[in-house]
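Retro notes
What went well: the complex prediction finally ran end to end.
Inputs used:
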Amino acid sequence: MLELSQQAIFSGLLVGSVYALVALGIALTFGAMKIINLAHGELVLLAAYMAYFIESRTGWNPYAAIPLAFAITAVVSIAVYLLIDRIKLHRELNSLILTFAIGIILTNGILLVFASDVRSTNSPVLQDALSFHTVYAMKGELTAFVVSLAVMSALWWWLKLSWYGRAVRAVSSNRDAAMLMGIDPRRVELAAFLVAGILASVAGVALFTMSVVQPALGPALTVKAFVVTVLAGVGSIPGVFCAALLLGVTEAMTVTLASSALQELVGMVLFLLVLFFMPNGLFGARARRG
Amino acid sequence: MTRRNFLTSTLIAGFAASFAWSPVASAEEIQVGSHMPLTGSLARSGQSFREGMLVAVKMYNDSQTKHQIKVTLIDDETQPAKAVGAVEKLASDGAVAILGGYGSNIVGPASDTANRLGKVYITAGAVSEELVQRGNKNFFRINNNAGYLRGFEGMVEELKAQSVSIVASTREAPMLLAKGLEESLAKKNVKVTLHPFDPAITDFKPIINKVKLQDKSEIIFMSAYENDYVGIIRAAKVLKPGVKLISGAWSLAIPKMYQDFPDLMQNVVGTTPLPYPVDMKDAEGQAFVAAFKTMFNKDIDYAATLSFVKTMVLCEALGRAADAGTLKTGGLADEVRKTKRSSVLGPIAFNETGDNPNFTLAMGQHREGKIVLVSPAEQATGKIAYPGLPW
Amino acid sequence: MVVKNLPGILLALAACLIPLVYGGNGYIMGLMVSGLIVAGVALAWALLGNLGGMVSFGHAAFFGVGAYASALLSAKAGLPVPLSLLAGGAVAALSSLAMLPALRLSGPYFALAILAYAHIFKILATELSWLTGGSAGFARFPVLPTIAGIDFSSRIGSYWLLVVMVGLCLLAYRAVKASHVGTALRAMAESEDATRVVGVNATLLKAWMLLLSAFITGLFGAMNAHIINFLEPDYAFSGTWSVLPIIAAIFGGYRTILGPVAGAVAIYLFDQLVAKAILPVGHQIILGVLLAGMILIAPNGLFGLFGKKKTGAAHAAA
């Protein structure tokens, strides 16, 4: 039982690191703009298909696809922002429906271009197994974990130290005050969507190397990421990271201790419990009640 | 105000007029309808179904001059209501029979509708037992859960395996097969452990680790779909449980899986009617392979084969009924019921519920891009690699 | 009065004319039946959105619960189908009680919390296989009955039944909107704090709207179950039942009463007869473009465009 649990915790941490990458994109745009981008999962999926495209055409390591993936997700992400920006009425809810519609468009676009086949990396290096004592992982998963950690640390530093980072935090804590201080919130929001695009491109490539992708995956990714965002509470990158790892481990432990059929159930119940009883999330600072 | 109402009424009038209707029927041809999931979650199977059907119709039409069969195909989008709508449209357009789709929850209501309209409905993609317990006299199917079950069960017996771990998706068909196997293998004193999983799962290591540390089985059987197979085998490759064989159900022992995931498929065993490269012993099978290659420039696959056989069976029955002049008077169901033929899927004959009790699939093993039939012994084209694993 | 009700009268006329023209065509009638089921759910969704101020991404939860409840009650408890349909709606409303805590959440959080419920209900339907048949599905339950010589299980029969049901739900919606409750809800949409001060219990009113919306959705879920006659969790709780009504209601205008209904039938027919002909694979992309376009250009829907003046007048009157 101990060995089972060790592996479950380890697997959960690795999966959680990718959840974190996906979730951070949603959390960032939400922080800056109070808008939940329901097309973010599709953005990640788009990047994953770019990785497939590069790997199947050139045989290179899928991580070589990050520049291409980033170029595409950045363009789409900015387009999403510009469209959202046009909404004047009931922005919070109408943007939800707008990004949802963009998600439908992207999902079907991917389906039209790449067909409904399942795709995943064929790189022998990434598929190799590694073991530490009694726990095992694919090299691709460990790579994803390291990449995720690196990207998050970089983002954390950026938000903490750069002018843009401070502006993002200023706008997300008080938009009007930030404006009075001479910060153009639209520039900041644009920056947030651009960074969300970077995060999506890395997350997509990581997903392709450690898991299986298919066109219908987008909404599931978005939901998972939203669950993480809620668990984390708004406002901190380490919070998102911890919440994502927690969700990954909880899911893996559910499979180990109970039944794998209940994995999704536990995630959803956890989500609702935190939503109802811990309005600030597990690690957050602000309330979300209406 | 009036302007708005004018607009509204124009809109409604235009909307009502926009779907004028004109049924097309031709006297010389026998009209057959078909609904298949060309899009939606079962699109892959649906596309193969379509190809197998088209080849069968072409071969039948070329084989004789008395009857020409024309099929109209509608995409049911993997949705029951649309399949029902499709059957109604096809019937109202003059189809005398329906070549059915894929998935029990879609075939069920669609065949109910066909029955109500007095049309014969034949399928090769719905395994639920409920379907043949309805007393629907116009319903026929080529394959069933029992056939997949027998294929795997036979192999377990031949290998004298004592324990099996079943990793099964909680979707309809995979769960049905998994539950059936759990029951029938237990009767043969094989130790079975069932691991049902939610279709949303992507990391299978926690499950495989249970197989490794708790079940300690000899065989892993995956009752699932393509994306799950990839995830499960990958997890197994990482954890390397002490099993001797990794096996699974449909859409696994197919050439495409090896082409897409060569590192994962070596020695994996799945249900299949045919070896690969295809080696047809009978003339019909050879003709099928050749015609398929000409029409689609690729090799036949499993779903296409199923669809080919069901379409052939229907075409021949249609020919017989037309000859006897009973096509318009409800004689088609009787003619289908009289079917007794061999096929690339083995002998085909229907019982009173419309099921084909002879249906059994062989087990094929991926071997360096080829698929070798390894069980049952009398159909085998090679000896099974056992223990044989992808790592 | 007549002029004011003209769109409704025209819709009712169209509903009567369609079976006269296309009654013999099972395909068109089948599409109409499916379209009307989506219309019922779209109406329920819009009611929650318009009166309750809540956007839901999980109406599939109520749809599935209503479907299973009615199928099980009619098959296992022997309840006559007309009663089991109502019971389906009632059970769906009951299930919405579990969502009451979500009412205190703000917009986007509520929308996605309901989605979580839909997921949970679907997994429960899969896991409680002793009751629901699990993922193998559940098929042997009665079809719509024949009453007074009308076979409601036929396309025409179910069409008329659905027209009447949609009509009744429309009237109920209108009555609620015109009542004090409706006035209070509209005021609440303007400013929740202000209404709280004058003694309106916002959460309680929202709860009633959620209950009503769930009841209507469950009712149509139950209807659909008895028309299709096969249930499995993936189908009964399919995301389609959450998504199509949103598109339909937005397209028709979710702030109007008739908009969602007209939008649902129009969108469904457009998707099946036009979009599918243009793009056999992936034609939902057209719906996506349409939805995005509507939100950007005409967030009040097509009916909203025509009805702009009227809404203004109604507000003034209120």
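What we learned: The longest strand of chain C covers residues 146-147.
What to try next: split runs per interface for comparison.
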